[in-house]
């Protein structure tokens, strides 16, 4: 994305006549004049510089754009929004239903902003354009692109996260989702696209970048005259760190098993709110990584009948360290609640107590007590 343009000084709109649409000497597009009653969305969109729509499968001419918007249809395009919608216009290619353009109008007293979304099967692009009145005699009206913030991936993550090399400082544009509405523009981080693009090492148990760590979104609130940027928490976000276990179908109970490095005790019963606590017997490098077989894995029937752990609350020496989400599977799972990219990881040493408190369960068909068949630290037990 780009940096924000400095606002220009604007004067009231007056009734003018001008020559047909063309580029001025500076290369900016000059639309036709609007009347003194203020800009109308159909008028503005029909004059939007069609050559700027460069992600379309089928190109659209200025004439076809105007016809589709004003008359509802042109040779290859049709308008798909109601005529009485004064804030949004959408046009669609007749031969390709996934090839469309949406325009959202934000109208001020002396100018207008138009959010433009181009969509086809392969790509979606989002821009904001400013429709400006400049009575200087050379170009009475013109379009300029309104430049949004160039966000980095780091901008969307919890501040306790140090992103790995290769990800830190990376442009967030490929992962951004835009929502246009009358109140402004909401810019969110697509967790799915980001996780899909991560390199293999970033998904290892030693330090997976969990989508739950994406904390922020941005909203460009429309005040009636301008956009104001706000940094907001994602809906339902909890500042408590949450880590998701990784399922490993090929793992065995002997994989880096460090059961000898800890002593174990547990609550009298294993229900929601009850716990399992491990104490480190030495200064062996364990404590962050764990392997678990969730549920009663004696048989498929036993596994289905008994509850399984869904969510642990983790305490290290009675200090809250985060939550762990387990999958509802019988295969071995691994998780790490102190990965290398965490700014303030717990300190593991001889005598450190790590308590896992059952916070949520997957319900079985018969018994209420959750069962754990295997649960050990993994790492360099030495």
Describe the structure.
This protein has 382 residues and is mainly beta. The chain contains 4 helices and 22 strands. A 6-stranded antiparallel beta sheet has the order 3-4-5-6-7-8. The protein is elongated.
> What average pLDDT do the residues reach?
82
Outline type: elongated
Q: Would you list the SSEs in sequence order as H and E?
A: EEHHEEEEEEEEHEEEEEEEHEEEEE
The spatial strand order of the largest sheet comes to 3-4-5-6-7-8
Class derived from helix and strand content: mainly beta
Number of helices: 4
Sketch the major β-sheet: 6 strands, antiparallel
| Helix content estimate | under 10%
What would you report as the Rg, rounded to the nearest angstrom? 29 Å
Number of strands: 22
Distance between the termini: 49 Å
Low-pLDDT stretches are: 1-27, 30-37
What share of the residues does DSSP label as strand, in percent? Answer: 35-45%
Key descriptive features of the protein:
mainly beta, 4 helices, disordered N terminus, 382 residues, six-stranded antiparallel beta sheet, six-stranded mixed beta sheet, 36% strand
